[in-house]
Amino acid sequence: MNNEHKKGKEINKDRRLNDKTMHKRVLVVGGGIAGIQASLDLAEMNIEVYLIEKGPSIGGRMAQLDKTFPTNDCAMCILSPKLVEAGAHPYIKIITNAELESITGQAPNFEATIIKKPRYINEEKCTGCGICVSKCPVKIPDEYNKGLSKTKCIHIPFPQAVPAIPIINKEYCVYLKRGKCRKCEESCEMKAIDFNQKEEIIKINVGSVILALGSEEFDATLKDEYGYKTFPNVMTSIEFERILSASGPTQGHIQRPSDGKEPKSIAFIQCVGSRDMQLGNEYCSAICCMQATKDVILVQEHIPGVKTSIFYMDMRAYGKDFDKFVDRAKDDYKARYIHARISSIEVNPITENLIVRYATDYGRIKKKNLN
């Protein structure tokens, strides 16, 4: 046994020594805050990094946040310098609008196949001047603002985006669908608009791969008892995050989508889509309790005196001193935590006020009116 083990170690050692295709290169999959930070750390060690992101720019979910818990620091103030640093670093190659198709080989010699989708912009020629955006006549739902506002068919995802290069939405582009318009192309002095751009396959040899895939947003329409997309005043946490943000669709003014008025009471429903055996998501998302607690504090800062309630199954404040953050919301911001699972949400058809129906710990059915 010892001889076989020794022989195996020698074979592996010889393989490493003789492997001339060993790459000191890293592929980072996912351009959110985790992928960006991993890329910067590697690049500071003089390691070449390929950072790929399926969206048109890096930044991920953090780019949509207003504040971060438990310090309530500005999310973009933290993220933006890292975006700039990653975009300018000589050891980091950013590939956006791309997805990892496959990885073959073994360490330290992998071959990654990447599919880069067309953005219909020549990234080498584009200066990011934005003239093409101003000339585009087509307005579409703004994905960055979760459809709560409009943007142009050709647009830069958000002001701090890296790369600061527009993308054309082929689903709405008049020229790509009907062969008419081309106003963006006519206005571009750099001739960077390329309607003939095709899907591109890129192959990269790397020695290591980091998967920083981020999170997937739950489709709240699957819980139809809550009326999401049916009642206008029911929204997801990320939609509410955009409303809180000064760069959001309401410039940070909290308004009811139904009538534009300031709300007098707001409820947060926890565990929607998680800890749910019917949906196959039996796990805790680990962030929702803190997310709602942060939002309660921010709401009070925006609209002092507004009534806030958090309906929760179990309070799971993961992290150092996170429980103190929850206590602060209760004591200083008068947040009301209600241990209950919401059975349904109804609406007053005249006022669009919501009515939350829930069961208490003692089995009593209660209703809470939100206005």
Automatic annotation (TrEMBL):
GO terms for molecular function: 4 iron, 4 sulfur cluster binding; metal ion binding; oxidoreductase activity. Keywords: 4Fe-4S, FAD, Flavoprotein, Iron, Iron-sulfur, Metal-binding, Oxidoreductase. Pfam families: FAD_oxidored, Fer4. InterPro entries: 4Fe4S_Fe-S-bd (IPR017896), 4Fe4S_Fe_S_CS (IPR017900), FAD/NAD-bd_sf (IPR036188), HdrA-like (IPR039650). Residues 116-146, 164-198 form the 4Fe-4S ferredoxin-type domain. PANTHER family: COB--COM HETERODISULFIDE REDUCTASE IRON-SULFUR SUBUNIT A, FERREDOXIN:COB-COM HETERODISULFIDE REDUCTASE SUBUNIT A. The keyword Flavoprotein applies. Its cofactor is FAD. This is 4Fe-4S ferredoxin-type domain-containing protein. Belongs to the HdrA family. Gene3D superfamilies: 3.30.70.3270, NAD(P)-binding Rossmann-like Domain.
